[in-house]
Amino acid sequence: MKIKELSSCLAASRLYGEGETEISDIQADSRKVKPGDLFICLPGFTVDGHEFAPQAAANGASALVCERKLDIDLPQLIVDDCRFAMSVLSNAFFGSPSNRMKMIGVTGTNGKTTTTYLIERILTDHGVKTGLIGTIQLRYDGQTYTASGTTQESLELQRTLNDMALKGVECCVMEVSSHALHQGRVKGTDYRTAIFTNLTQDHLDYHHTMEEYRAAKGLFFSRLGNVISPWKEERKYAVLNADDEAAAYFAAQTAAEVITYGIDSKANVRASQISITSKGTFFHVDTFKGETDISLRMVGKFNVYNALAAITAALLEDVPLEEIKTSLESVAGVDGRVESVDAGQDYAVIVDYAHTPDGLENVLRAVCEFAGGKVLTVFGCGGDRDKTKRPLMGKIAAKYSDHVFVTSDNPRTEDPLLILQDIEAGLTEDGVEQDSYEMIPDRREAITKAIEMASPGDVVLIAGKGHETYQLIGGVVHDFDDRLVAKDVIRGRSY
Ligand SMILES: CC(=O)N[C@H]1[C@@H](OP(=O)(O)OP(=O)(O)OC[C@H]2O[C@@H](n3ccc(=O)[nH]c3=O)[C@H](O)[C@@H]2O)O[C@H](CO)[C@@H](O)[C@@H]1O[C@H](C)C(=O)N[C@@H](C)C(=O)N[C@H](CCC(=O)O)C(=O)O
Ligand SMILES: Nc1ncnc2c1ncn2[C@@H]1O[C@H](COP(=O)(O)OP(=O)(O)OP(=O)(O)O)[C@@H](O)[C@H]1O
Ligand SMILES: N[C@H](CCC[C@H](N)C(=O)O)C(=O)O
Ligand SMILES: [Mg+2]
Fold first, then answer.
1. Quick check: 350 and 340 in contact, CB under 8 A?
2. Residue 286 phi/psi, 5° resolution?
3. Number of other CB atoms surrounding residue 70 within 10 Å
4. What string of DSSP letters covers 31-95?
5. Distance 183 CA to ligand 4 centre (A)
6. Does 252 contact ligand 1 (Cβ within 6 A)?
7. What is the C-alpha to C-alpha distance for residues 30 and 40, in angstroms, rounded to an integer?
8. Which residue positions form the known binding site?
9. ipTM
10. Distance linking the first and last C-alpha atoms of the chain
11. 465 lines ligand 3 (CB under 6 A)
C-alpha cells in the first residue's frame, strides 16, 4: 500500500514527502521496525513515541505518522491524534478484517475471560470456526499465542483479526477492556454482539470515578448499531445483565437491539432453581428459544451469569438450546478460575483470579457454600493499580474467612509492605481478632502457612493470580504459579 492511500483515510492529515512511498507493514514500537515499515509515533503514558522516530528511521522505516513535523528525511503524515490515526490506518491497511467475520465482544469488570471461553466452546462445538482474544491467550486455527494484555492495541488487534480472517475464522469472540475502550483500541472494529457482564469497582487509578469507568464501558454500546453496513448485512445486539444497574444506562446509549439475561430481574434469558455444590452448579434456564436444565461443572452463582451471557450470545447465532446445554456441561472450567489443586490431600485448595472486591466476595461466597470446615484465604493486591480496592478486599476477606494470609500479588514498582498495610486497614476495620490474620509478604510462604493450617474439610483459597505463571516484583519477572507452588507444598507437607 502507498502512503498516499493511507493518507486519504484521514481527511485532515497533511502528507509531506513522496506519496508513492510503499508501506510494507505498520509498527508503533521502534524496536520492531523493519525496512519499509510505517512508524506511528504514539505519545504514551510513560514516553513519547516521537522520540523513537530516529531509531525507527535507522531500522529502515519508510515513512512516519506524527503529531508534529520531525527533522527526519522521511515522508511524514501529520495528524492531530496518532492514537486515532493508528486505529483508522491499521483498519485500512489490514482491509477492515472485522467486516470479514462475526465479532462478539465482552466487556465488564469480572467474567469476561470466562464468558468468552464458554462462547468459544459452544460455537466451536456447533461447527463454527472460532477465534478467541483475551487475558489468558489468543487462539485460533489450532494455534495459541501469548496475550500481552486483555485487549490488544488497535494495530495488533487489526493484525490479529486479519490473520484470523485469512485462516478462515468465521467468528471472533474477544474481551474488550475499559482501558481499550478509553484508548480507542477497538475503534473501527465492527461488532455484531456486545455483551456486558457487570460493573463493580476496579481501575479507579485509571478511570478516577465509577462514573468515568461506566462511561468508558458505555462507549462499547454507544458505538453499536448506529449503522448497518450494507456489505455485512447483520443485525446488532447489546446483551446486557439485567441484574446490574448499569444495564439501563447502556441500554439507553445503544442503537442495537437490547437482549437481557439475569436471575433476579425480568429478562429475555433467565435462570432459576440455582443450586451450588463443591462440584458444580445446577440451574433452570428460560429463554426466547425454549427452556432447559443445565448442570455446570463450574461452581459459583457468578458462573451462572457467565453461562447466561454465553447462552444468549449463542442463541443469537442460532445455536439450538440443547446443543448449548451439551457444550456448557462439557466445560470442566477455565484456567485459573476456581481451579482445584489436587495432590491427594483431604482438604480443598482452590486457585482463583479474583482481583477485585466483587470478584473476591463472589468466590468466597461460593466457597463458603460448600466448605465443610474452615475457609483459609491467601490473597494480595497488585501494585501500580487501583489502591482504593485494597482495604475493600481486606474487609471482604475477613468477613468470609476463618483465617486470612495477606500476601503479595504483583507488587510491580510499589513497596510490597505498603500494599499489605493498605489491605490490613480494611481487614481490621470491623475489629477482627488479632490472631485471625497474618501478613506474609512472601507469597510462597503464605501459601505454605495456609496449607499447613488446613484440616480435613477445610478450603484454602489462593486468590488474585489465577492462570498467571509469574510474579512481578520491582522490574523483575519471577516464575510463579500458584497451582504449582500449592502442589509442591501439599506434597512436601509433613503430616
Ligand atoms: C495504561 C496503559 O494502558 N498503557 C499501555 C500503553 O503504555 P504507554 O502509553 O505507557 O506506552 P509508552 O511506554 O509510553 O510508549 C509510547 C510509545 O512509544 C513506543 N516506544 C517505546 C519505547 C521504545 O524504545 N520505542 C518505542 O517506539 C511504544 O511502543 C509506544 O507506542 O501502551 C503500551 C503499548 O501498547 C501498553 O503495553 C500499555 O499497557 C500497559 C502495559 C498496561 O499495564 N495496561 C493495562 C492497564 C491495561 O491496558 N489493562 C487492560 C485490562 C484490564 C482488565 O481487564 O482488568 C488490558 O486491556 O490489557
Ligand atoms: N460474572 C462474574 N461476576 C463476578 N465475579 C466474577 C464473575 N465471573 C468471574 N468472577 C470472578 O472474577 C475472576 C476473574 O474472572 P474472569 O477472568 O472471567 O474475569 P475478567 O473480566 O476476564 O478479568 P480481567 O479484567 O482480569 O480480564 C474469577 O476468578 C472469579 O473470581
Ligand atoms: N487485568 C487486571 C489483572 C490484575 C491481576 C492481578 N494479579 C494484578 O496483577 O493486579 C489488571 O491488570 O489490573
Ligand atoms: Mg479477562
1. yes
2. -115, 120
3. 18
4. GG--TTEEEE--B-SSSBGGGGHHHHHHTT--EEEESS--SSSS-EEE-S-HHHHHHHHHHHHTT
5. 17
6. no
7. 9
8. 30, 108-114, 150-151, 177, 183, 185, 385, 409-412, 464, 468
9. 0.95
10. 68
11. yes
Q: Nine-digit cell at 420?
A: 499489605
The closest ligand to the CA of 147 turns out to be 1
In this structure, which residue's CA is closest to atom 4 in ligand 3? 355
Residue 81 grid coordinates:
491524534
Protein residue with least CA distance to atom 13, ligand 3: 385
Q: For the whole model, what pTM was predicted?
A: 0.94
One-letter identity of residue 274: I
Going by C-alpha positions, the residue among 241, 189, 252 that lies closest to residue 215 is: 252
Phi-psi region of 154 (alpha: psi -120 to 50; beta: other; left: phi over 0): alpha
Whose atoms come closest to the Cα of 333: which ligand? 2
Separation of CA 150 and ligand 4 centre (Å): 6
Q: Separation of 347 CA from ligand 1 center, angstroms?
A: 41
Residuewise pLDDT in 10s, the chain (495 residues): 999 999 999 999 999 999 999 999 999 999 999 999 999 999 999 999 999 999 999 999 999 999 999 999 999 999 999 999 999 999 999 999 999 999 999 999 999 999 999 999 999 999 999 999 999 999 999 999 999 899 999 999 999 999 999 999 999 999 999 999 999 999 999 999 999 999 988 888 999 999 999 999 999 999 998 776 666 667 899 999 999 999 999 999 999 999 999 999 999 999 999 998 878 999 999 999 999 999 999 999 999 999 999 999 999 999 999 999 999 999 999 999 999 999 999 999 999 999 999 999 999 999 998 888 999 999 999 999 999 999 999 999 999 999 999 999 999 999 999 999 999 999 998 877 778 999 999 999 999 999 999 999 999 999 999 999 999 999 899 999 999 999 999 998 754
Amino acid residing at 17: G
Identify the bridge partners of residue 478 per DSSP, sorted by sequence position: 471
The finding on whether 354 has its CB within 6 A of some atom of ligand 2 is yes
Pocket test for ligand 3, best of 355, 363, 422, 443 (most atoms within 8 A of CB): 355
Name the residue type at position 354.
A
Is 105 near ligand 2, meaning CB less than 6 Å away? no
Nearest CA to ligand 3 atom 2: 355
Give 3-state DSSP helix, strand, coil % of the chain, rounded to 5: 35, 25, 40
> Which string of DSSP letters, residue by residue, matches 87-139?
HHHHHHHTT-GGGGSEEEEEESSS-HHHHHHHHHHHHHHTT--EEEESSSEEE
CA–CA separation, 377 vs 460, rounded Å? 6
Annotated binding residues for ATP: 108-114
Question: What are the cell numbers at 462?
Answer: 489462593
